[in-house]
Design brief:
This protein is 55% helix and 6% strand. By secondary structure, it is mainly alpha-helical. The strands form 2 sheets. A two-stranded parallel ribbon has the order 1-4. It has a two-stranded parallel sheet with strand order 2-3. Helix 1 runs antiparallel to helix 2, helix 3 (45-61) packs parallel to helix 8 and helix 7 crosses helix 8. It binds zinc ion (ZN).
């Protein structure tokens, strides 16, 4: 309790300081950051790390879970050549890999269907719904789409624990690629969808010479 109060007082003082010194942009950014992290101020940094590590350890044991991810290094991504934005490419890749996974666990008389859940965001909502419609009509670049339910479900991530789990996985992948942090990454990467020894579910879109675990395991045949 005490820690929570002290952290809140410190944050308030900091915001006032930024406001009175006219650092408007930083003020707005910090205000948002503080608002989003307010539920966790009773935990120290070490405790927060411990919490996410424990969650990642659970995820790594979930034999029923499959991780699909597209990590695009924007330095090596050219939207003109790709003919689409990085976000669009990522979405198309994820839909294709998820669809392929559903195809692989389906039988002719027992088709398995999948539903996409998105974090609620109006701009993304419009774009992805339109893209999904296109994929259903024409398929993606990689596959026909007939196992994925046509309209993505948009949910409030604060109320939906599975979206928070997906966020944690995205965080672990990003920290690995940007900062070389392996602990969380190795745990969640256990769940990457695999065909034989190849981790087909997760891809790192970057320079071809990259030798990170994601690239190495994605190439293995
Ligand atoms: Zn790589």
């Amino acid at each position: 309790m005490r820690r929570r109060q002290e952290a809140r007082t410190y944050r308030k003082q900091h915001l006032l300081q930024l406001q009175s010194s006219g650092q408007n942009k930083l003020y707005k950014r910090m205000k948002k950051n503080y608002r989003n992290t307010d539920s966790y101020v009773h935990l120290s940094y070490k405790e927060r790390r411990q919490l996410i590590t424990e969650i990642a350890m659970h995820i790594s044991q979930w034999g029923f879970a499959r991780l699909f991810a597209e990590c695009i290094d924007k330095v090596h991504f050219n939207p003109t050549i790709a003919g689409m934005s990085a976000e669009q490419q990522a979405f198309e890749q994820i839909v294709s890999r998820f669809e392929r996974f559903l195809q692989s666990i389906s039988e002719p008389k027992n088709k398995n269907y999948g539903l996409l859940n998105h974090d609620n965001n109006q701009t993304v909502e419009m774009k992805h719904t339109a893209l999904m419609r296109e994929f259903l009509k024409q398929g993606t670049l990689w596959t026909e789409v007939n196992h994925t339910i046509e309209t993505p479900l948009f949910v409030d991530s604060e109320l939906t624990s599975m979206v928070q789990i997906a966020d944690l996985c995205a965080y672990a992948l990003r920290r690995y690629l940007e900062n070389g942090e392996e602990e969380l990454f190795e745990l969640v990467f256990e769940r990457a969808d695999r065909r034989g020894n190849t981790a087909v579910g997760v891809r790192h879109y970057t320079d071809q010479s990259c030798s990170c675990t994601i690239c190495t395991r994605h190439r293995t045949t």
